[in-house]
Design a protein that fits this description.
About 35% of the residues lie in helices and about 15% in strands. With about 675 residues, the protein is of the alpha/beta class. Among the domains are: about 130 residues, Immunoglobulins (Immunoglobulin-like), CATH 2.60.40.10; about 110 residues, no CATH class. The strands form 6 sheets. An 8-stranded parallel barrel has the order 13-14-17-18-19-20-21-22. Strands 3, 9, 10, 11 and 12 form a 5-stranded antiparallel beta sheet that branches. Strand 11 and strand 12 form a beta hairpin. The chain is globular. The two termini are about 45 Å apart.
């Protein structure tokens, strides 16, 4: 737990003890997770069950977490927004002890159609698979399966297994066997009894059946042992499972469409309805994958996204392999165009991606991808963590953006905001089930000290399940290549990073450090790098917490890179306060080359432009721009010279969405090429 301290030369006892205590807490947290989930893969795959999913048995299943609710139902276009038509059933059929609610939407039988003969009849909705539509009788399939798969006599023994056990008992103890433990006497061990019985069966016709049996060794907490002979084992191994027959019994999409009306159709609007101690609530489901605002300004709603097979986006390119250092192009889709409107995923794919490739970058980092109600937050007040921002397009539009970027050899990184969440109570997670402590801390700790956003409960297993699943969702569903974890200082400290830091090591292990947040980051990096070895994780932390990019096995947090926020701030301070002829190269180089281990160096990033500030190009060129918008040649030379010297760093990153920079390229391509 303290391995990286030797490597970095840190010898503070208090910090070393803090790391040991954190390691013990990490083991306890893993135990909590593994008591509910088999491993990190299952613990990060909640999206496979939660949310809206079509079930093979002509229905749609919905699940969400709301421990504070008393009643749960789905309302939407599909049931005329009725709060009673599609509700969770009573007891454990509708919700479990952890607060997960389960609602089933049954497909409706079309007029004139007969119900399926078998209640377990399955349908394949995605692949238009119609083997089951050839009229083959299910009984005939089962007969063929039995004849082809089972050994003679084996089917009979399976169907009459209780009679077989009774016969075995009679052969071992006689027709009038002992009835009490005292009469039974000493019994040989199980394997000896089995072998003795087997020896008497050599001449029986049933000996052609595979000789498998399960016996108990009698040891507590031990598994069962299987006793078998080699010949039967090899015969069993050589057989193929009768899967083809079961697949043939599954009917196809055409048969489903002919017989049923979908319980909920593609693009239907819906919300989740709760009855709580404080009254009824309507909420956008926490696991919704597409969310749209109401056209009349009312509460937003989730949209069921289930396009037919012919409309599902089909991926064309694999993940690219990037050689050498990263060259990251940071951008925001909405402000990437030249027109006075919010640009779309489609426009970004067509117009901006080729520009990024031609400019020599090998990665694009997109901010504001996750759904957010407040556009002025530039996407950092997230309301719906599993949905792409509907302002820019549909889920398939974003898939195409990622796919085309991969085709150009560009990695796609997104900003992920797990350090806090939007405080919106109508669309987001705040007061989701009517309680104040569902996803977030209650009281003052549940609110960011300055931004008013909500702070996650990182010590809650279900919150960890939500956050870990969210990371895995973006990698699995959208093939994202990496994440920049936004504003770690907000989550690592109970003062949210708004405190004076002197650089003393005790500031990283005192009472203001949130140990649970650190444990979550360790689990997140372990999960991502274990399940997706090529994933890239970047830490954005203004406090430079020790061990950010050290291995988790050595006491670190496991990030691949950390973003050095002091470099763009240094350039901004020089541009705004110091004449260029008085710049101190010693001070500049000290900032550029200090702590460059796993460092990402930005010339400027979104912090310089989303808070009412100007971009560097606007600061440099603003005074020299004519009313026509043209720029003097001297200023172009000056701007390019100043920006050229900022290109020092381990990994170089830059930013778009500054019209002045684009104009600079048009005014003097030769000078701009040096930037």
């Amino acid at each position: 737990p303290v391995g990286f301290l030797v490597k970095t030369g840190v010898s503070d006892r208090a910090f070393a003890q803090f790391l040991r205590d954190r390691h013990k807490a990490l083991k306890d947290r893993r135990w909590e997770l593994y008591s509910r989930f088999i491993d990190l893969k299952e613990g990060s795959s909640g999206y496979e069950l939660l949310g809206m999913h079509r079930h093979r048995q002509h229905r749609v299943d919905f699940m969400d977490w709301a421990p504070g609710a008393r009643y749960c139902s789905l309302i939407g276009d599909f049931n005329q927004w009725s709060a009673t038509e599609n509700c969770a059933r009573e007891g454990h059929l509708g919700h479990d002890d952890f607060g997960y609610w389960f609602v089933i939407l049954e497909d409706k039988l079309r007029e004139g159609q007969e119900p399926d003969e078998y209640f377990f009849q399955e349908y394949n909705y995605v692949d238009d698979y119609d083997k089951g539509d050839n009229g083959v009788d299910a009984k005939d399939l089962i007969r063929r399966m039995n004849e082809e798969y089972w050994e003679p006599g084996e089917v009979t023994s399976r169907k009459s297994r209780w009679e077989t056990v009774a016969k075995l008992y009679e052969q071992m103890f006689g027709p009038n066997g002992p009835q009490t433990e005292e009469e039974l006497g000493e019994i040989p061990d199980a394997e000896t009894r089995y072998k003795n019985w087997k020896a008497t069966q050599k001449d029986e016709s049933s000996s052609s059946s595979p000789s498998y049996d399960i016996i108990d060794t009698g040891q507590e907490f031990d598994i069962f042992n299987v006793v078998t002979d080699r010949a039967s084992f090899e015969k069993f191994q050589a057989k193929a499972t009768p899967l083809a027959y079961w697949v043939e019994m599954r009917k196809g999409r055409k048969a489903w469409i002919e017989k049923y009306v979908p319980a909920i159709s593609h693009k239907d609007k819906y919300r989740i309805y709760f009855n709580t101690p404080d009254g009824a609530l309507e909420r956008v489901p926490a696991w919704a994958t597409y969310v749209l605002p109401d056209a009349e300004g009312m509460q937003s709603y989730a949209v069921h996204w289930e396009p037919p097979p012919e409309e599902i986006y089909k991926w064309r390119f694999g993940r690219p392999k990037v050689k050498g250092s990263l060259r990251i192009y940071e951008c925001h889709v909405g402000i990437s165009g030249s027109e006075q409107k919010i640009s779309s995923f489609q426009e970004f794919t067509s117009n901006v991606l080729p520009h990024i490739k031609n400019a020599g970058y090998n990665a694009v980092q997109i901010i504001g991808v996750l759904e957010h109600k407040d556009y002025s937050s530039v996407g950092y007040k997230v309301t719906n963590y599993f949905a792409v921002s509907s302002r820019f397009g549909t889920p398939d539009d974003f898939k195409k953006l990622v796919d085309e970027a991969h085709g150009l050899g560009l990695l796609v990184l997104i900003d992920i905001v797990h350090s806090y969440a939007s405080a919106d109570e109508m669309v987001g997670l705040s007061l989701f089930d009517g309680s104040n402590d569902c996803y977030f801390h209650s009281g003052k700790r549940g609110h960011h000290k300055y931004w008013g956003t909500r702070m996650f409960k990182y010590d809650d297993v279900d919150v960890l399940h939500f956050l870990l699943s969210n990371l895995s969702w973006w990698v699995t569903e959208y093939k994202i290549d990496g994440f920049q974890f936004h504003s770690l200082s907000s989550m690592l400290y109970t003062h949210n990073g708004f405190s004076t830091f002197t650089g003393a090591i005790e500031e990283y292990c005192n009472q203001y450090v949130d140990k649970d947040a650190l444990i979550y980051l360790i689990l997140a990096n372990e999960m991502l790098h274990e399940l997706h070895p090529d994933i890239i994780t970047i830490a954005e932390d203004a406090t430079y917490y020790p061990g950010l990019c050290e291995p988790t096995t050595q006491g670190g947090l496991g990030f691949d890179y950390w973003a050095n926020l002091s470099i763009p701030e240094m350039w901004l301070w020089h541009l705004e306060n110091v004449p260029e002829r008085e710049w101190s190269m010693n001070k500049i180089m000290k900032v550029l080359i200090s702590s460059n281990h796993h460092m990402l160096s930005y010339v400027e990033n979104h912090n310089q432009s989303i808070s009412g500030r100007k971009s560097f190009a606007e600061i440099i060129l603003n005074t020299g721009m004519c009313s026509s918008g043209s720029v003097d040649d001297d200023l172009i030379f000056k701007a390019s010279s100043l920006l050229k010297i900022s290109g020092s760093g381990v990994k170089i990153c830059n930013k778009i969405a500054h019209p002045v920079l684009e104009q600079l390229h048009e005014e003097d391509h030769e000078a701009a090429a040096n930037i």
